[in-house]
């Protein structure tokens, strides 16, 4: 803990930690020492971790990197952080992220962007987003692991951009209680770690059956570490042809082939598969996620939480809402609220939102069908490129930024587990990752495959 606290202090330039909690860390570390001394060593005893700012942590600022939550210190602890603390973990502080987890480059944060510890010559790169602070902190050895959340790729894309491991669990495996909501039918928290084994240990600590989240699954949490046998002989790995996108960099394609070879060498069978509705996934996601976000973010009205705008003489409640939300939300969040409100409005509900829900069901059915044909795990690229320079996409059409999620959103729409594993470096020496997609509740198997690739 002391070593991590001083590493955090020395790494201000990365802007990964936005709130430091050294007193809490020292207290928790001392408690972990006492537990160890008494022969009680839970899974994460004394392990220093960083917590994404999206998790409510009792008495500690929890702002989802938004101005609108300025001054908000929750009265309660999220289930995930409570589970981690019960397992002995030590919180070093809160980690930077895209505002309300909307973004792919960690450039929408009220705290400013995070810097990827990997560099391209002298150019600063994005760590990805929205869990960019988590990924950068793990990659720079500021903490041993971090929490992330993933609505459309926010764990897996930053993991791929920083050479770390990121797991988005099956929807319902990890409680969402106390995690600030973005799109409730897609959001899942998961571990971001240096190794697959660490991800297995941390998922076991984060996951629980939680009566406070009605979508948390009533299933016992298995021993994920015990699933890491290294044996994948006879497993059938699907390679979905629709993920071979036009204009995909040759390096990504080569890495994908290399990953398939590694799994084949370990005794798995490689099978070409088809997921025909893949091409509709991104537009479907960018209807459903903003729709849910516009509803979830309605609660930030200047009354119940955080910041209220200064009002002028004669302003009424409508002006109060308008000024508070105009000042409190950044541009990307405002864009999502506008899109979401539009697709849910009476005249357009059937044309957009209902249609997106139907396409979502077809995307899920594609996966159900390949799993029913005996495919165990699906291998795809994690991202369409390596980390890009900071600022490179901020002035572009927002759809360019959304394309980062092209390989990851399908997994959230179908509620499946997805794992990003670092597999190699590109010609410029930057990390590249592959994604493994599993059957529901099959995280152990997924992690076991991931260990073959890392
Ligand atoms: N980049 C995607 C978005 O902006 C995904 C974000 C996430 O997974 N939280 O919506």
Tell me what you see in this structure.
There is one protein chain. It is built from 14 helices and 13 strands. The chain is an alpha/beta fold. It has a domain at 2-232: Amidase signature (AS) domain (Amidase signature (AS) enzymes). An 11-stranded mixed sheet has the order 1-3-2-6-8-7-12-13-11-9-10, sandwiched between helices. Strand 9 (236-240), helix 7 and strand 10 form a beta-alpha-beta unit. Helix 4 packs parallel to helix 5. The structure holds glutamine. The site of glutamine (GLN) has 13 residues, from loops.
Indicate the radius of gyration in whole angstroms: 21 Å
Counted by DSSP, the helix tally is 14
Q: Which percent range describes the beta-strand content?
A: 5-15%
The shape, in one word, is globular
Give the second-level CATH assignment, the architecture of one domain: Alpha-Beta Complex
CATH topology of one domain: Amidase signature (AS) enzymes
Oligomer designation: single chain
Note the main sheet. 11 strands, mixed
Bound molecules: glutamine
Q: By helix and strand content, what is the structural category?
A: alpha/beta
What is the averaged pLDDT score? 97
CATH class of one domain: Alpha Beta
Q: What's the total number of strands?
A: 13
Short note summarizing the structure:
With 454 residues, the protein is of the alpha/beta class. The protein is 36% helix and 15% strand.
């Amino acid at each position: 803990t002391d070593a991590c606290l001083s590493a955090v202090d020395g790494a201000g330039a990365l802007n990964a930690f936005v709130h430091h909690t050294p007193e809490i860390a020292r207290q928790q570390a001392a408690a972990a020492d006492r537990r160890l001394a008494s022969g009680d060593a839970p899974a994460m005893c004394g392990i220093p971790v960083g917590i994404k700012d999206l998790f409510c942590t009792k008495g500690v600022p929890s702002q989802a990197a938004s101005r609108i939550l300025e001054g908000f210190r929750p009265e309660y602890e999220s289930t995930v952080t409570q589970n981690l603390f019960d397992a002995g973990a030590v919180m070093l502080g809160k980690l930077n992220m895209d505002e309300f987890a909307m973004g792919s480059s960690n450039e929408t944060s009220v705290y400013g962007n995070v810097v990827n510890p990997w560099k391209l010559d002298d150019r600063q790169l994005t760590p990805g987003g929205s869990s960019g602070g988590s990924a950068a902190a793990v990659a720079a050895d500021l903490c041993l692991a971090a929490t992330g959340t993933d609505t459309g790729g926010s764990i897996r894309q930053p993991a791929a951009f920083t050479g770390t491991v990121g797991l988005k669990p099956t929807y319902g495996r990890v409680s969402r209680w106390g995690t600030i909501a973005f799109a409730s039918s897609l959001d899942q928290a998961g571990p971001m770690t240096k190794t697959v084994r660490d991800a297995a240990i941390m998922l076991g600590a984060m996951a629980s059956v939680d009566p406070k989240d009605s979508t948390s699954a009533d299933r016992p949490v298995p021993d994920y570490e015990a699933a890491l046998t290294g044996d994948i002989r006879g497993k059938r790995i699907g390679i979905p042809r629709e993920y071979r996108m036009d204009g995909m960099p040759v390096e990504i394609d080569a890495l994908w082939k290399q990953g398939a070879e590694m799994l084949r060498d370990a005794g798995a069978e490689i099978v070409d598969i088809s997921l025909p509705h893949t091409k509709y996934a991104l537009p479907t996601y960018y209807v459903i996620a903003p729709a849910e976000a516009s509803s979830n973010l309605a609660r930030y009205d200047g009354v119940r939480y955080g910041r209220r705008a200064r009002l002028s003489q004669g302003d009424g409640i409508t002006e109060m809402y308008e000024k508070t939300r105009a000042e409190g939300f950044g541009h990307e969040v405002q864009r999502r609220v506008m899109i979401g409100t539009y697709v849910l409005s009476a005249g357009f509900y059937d044309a957009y939102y209902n249609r997106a829900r139907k396409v979502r069901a077809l995307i899920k059915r594609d996966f159900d069908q390949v799993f029913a044909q005996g495919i165990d795990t699906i291998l795809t690229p994690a991202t369409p490129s390596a980390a890009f320079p900071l600022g490179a996409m901020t002035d572009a059409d927002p759809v360019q930024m959304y394309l980062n999620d092209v390989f990851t959103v399908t997994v959230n729409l179908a509620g499946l587990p997805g794992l990003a594993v670092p597999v190699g470096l590109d010609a410029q020496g930057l990390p590249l990752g592959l994604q493994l997609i599993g059957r529901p509740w099959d995280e152990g198997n997924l992690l076991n495959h991931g260990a073959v690739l890392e």
